[in-house]
Amino acid sequence: MAIDGGTGEGRAAPFEMRAVGESGDAQERRTAGERARTAPFDEEARRLSEVLAHVRAALGRADDLAEGTADGYEDAAAYLAGARGELAPEEAVSASIELDRMGRHAALAGDARERLRKLLDAPYFARVDFLPDDAAPGTRATPTYVGRFAFSAAGRSLVSDWRSPAAGLFYEFEPGPASFEAPSGRRVGTLALKRQLGVKAGQLEYAVDTGSSVRDEVLARALARGADARMHDIVASIQ
Q1: For residues 201-216, b (16+ Cβ closer than 10 Å) or e, as one string?
Q2: Where are the alpha helices (DSSP H) in 9-165?
Q3: Alpha-carbon distance values, 7 to 13, 45, 48, 185, 218 (Å)
Q4: What is the pLDDT of residues 78-126, one digit of tens each?
Q5: Within 10 Å of residue 14's Cβ, how many Cβ atoms?
Q6: Strand 142-147 with 156-161, pairing
């Protein structure tokens, strides 16, 4: 399933066609079911759009930083190569150390930019909502989105690394009692929601909660696309 940006002209409006022999009550029940199934998709499509806007902004800054540090490193390397015979031994050593530092910074900036480019394609693949047992009455479960890399913006964690403690909820538990080891200690509570999300080229393809009748079909499609070995194992393990 992909987000349709078209106008829909020339097509029948969704949920308006009635099957032959279908009663009004049956149609109403079918329509309600269809709407219930599209609710997670619509919610996640809006959230994905917001996250990608933050990723694009971060990528713009990362581009500037990566280009600036790379240019600075190249200029410093050219200067050092040209002045090597004119520098005192201690100055040459100091310049070499500084050049190495600039090279590491340039490499880190390039790596950060590459991670953001990958996030722009698919920032996450799952969502888990966890409510700790010691939460105050009326507290809602906290959603955590799990992806290949962690990403934060505007002081908020928008994506958690798949190796983070909270991400273990997705691999190890079904909705119900759950726990994980946080840096502050063991967290015990309830996994209120476990949702698989398919994102490709920045477009949401599916959003399926555990227990949905289309879950196995969606996971089979994910496996068929040929993810890397680790992701293949993850998808296979939750079937």
Answers
A1: ebbbbbbbebebeebe
A2: 24-83, 89-121
A3: 11, 18, 21, 51, 27
A4: 656 666 666 666 666 666 776 567 667 667 777 888 999 999 999 999 9
A5: 11
A6: parallel
